Amino acid sequence: MRTPSFSPALFFATALLVAPVAFAQFGLDLSKVTKGIEAGKDLAKAGKGVVGIGPQEERKLGEAVALEIIGRFGGLVRDEAVMHRVNLIGRGLARYSSRPNLDWQFAVLDSDTVNAFSAPGGLVFITRGLYEQADSDDVLAGILGHEIAHITNKNALKIVQRGDFAAGTKGFLLKRSSDVREANAAVSQVSQVGSMLGFDVMALTKKMFESGFDAPTEFTADRDGRALAMSTGYAPGGLRAALQHLHDDGENRKTMFSTHPPLTERLKKLPKDPAPPVPDADAKDQPVGEAQ
Amino acid sequence: MKKSLPRVLLLAGLFAVSAFAAFEAGSITYTKRLETKLLAEPKPTAESSGTIAFAHQVKVEQVQGAWLRVSEGDVSGWVFAGNLSATKPDEGARLDGVALLASKTTATAAARPLDDAVVQYAAQRNFGDARADLEWMQAACAEITDATVDEFLQEQKKGEFQ
Question: Which residue of A57, A97, B31, B121 has the fewest CB atoms within a 10 Å radius of its CB?
Fold first, then answer.
């Protein structure tokens, strides 16, 4: 049996994320926990010089986020043809992105809801509900391009890091040693809670699922995703067509990209590209089949 | 209203070229893939005249649609603009693909096992089914090689095959 590896950056990121949950569920002293996390962040910064989550840690975080996504959205559609299509289009796009060397992986969630998610490290998910509404490769490329942009722009990682690491080593040095001792004890307390919950990413996924990225982040992902799709050779109006389709169907932020800004705002920001052609019915791919 | 296919494809082609309008002759650009092939002609099937490693600075000598003739020292060749970056890639991104080099072949690569910490997380969150799905996903994705993606792009006339 292999010994579980320990990653300081991931631990501190996890500790940061788990703190509110730990407080709510176990009634810990939040001020101590916060102080502990602050000390942890300072130590991590001092140790690394620059604060950041490395590629391997990003991948681990992404896989944990992926578990949350898969767990909450009905598992995966285990259909080889669907996996093939979504990965060929997705990886074809990703190779021209700003992070072509990630291990990009795409999958369809077995859920009727209409949504798509990205997890750090190159993991992209689209629900069956949205996949079935993507009536052409151009539209699917538009949707996947948007999610790829969230990963290349490191939007989830920025949530982890936000409000963090402002003072760096200076901040650490300014702390009294008694604060540090107390803080270390609190970090240990968080660690215990963390080991009970696993290295928790629930706060991150809660944010992703409930409030999502802020509007400017989404508009940027729309812009970058559209640019990626069109530079790869897909019709530039794919994402717009997907959003327009849902808008016309009366979808609103509660059901479609519920974590995103309202569709009307996103449509307003996107160029008025023509809708891509819908392939002939007999040329279209098979609908999503039953799970195998 | 349904748009005619050729018109939209033409538009897509024009947009693809304009997406790379930032690259001009004389400008500096960077390689962003672990290995970037320099080609003898501005087409993906042309003979390779060499390769340039990750995050190297190259000079744009000539622009032809979405293709750029670039040089690094005495070496020059054609590269699809989508394989270059106007800004220097983060050095850390070099590591993005290090563990994946085995998959950059025509052979099917084995999926990497989940990290122990992730396995532990799945157990503690009681995500046994989700873990099985994630492992299935990784195995299914590992079956799709870069060569398969190349074939797809070629067949669909996407990326450098436009």
Answer: A57
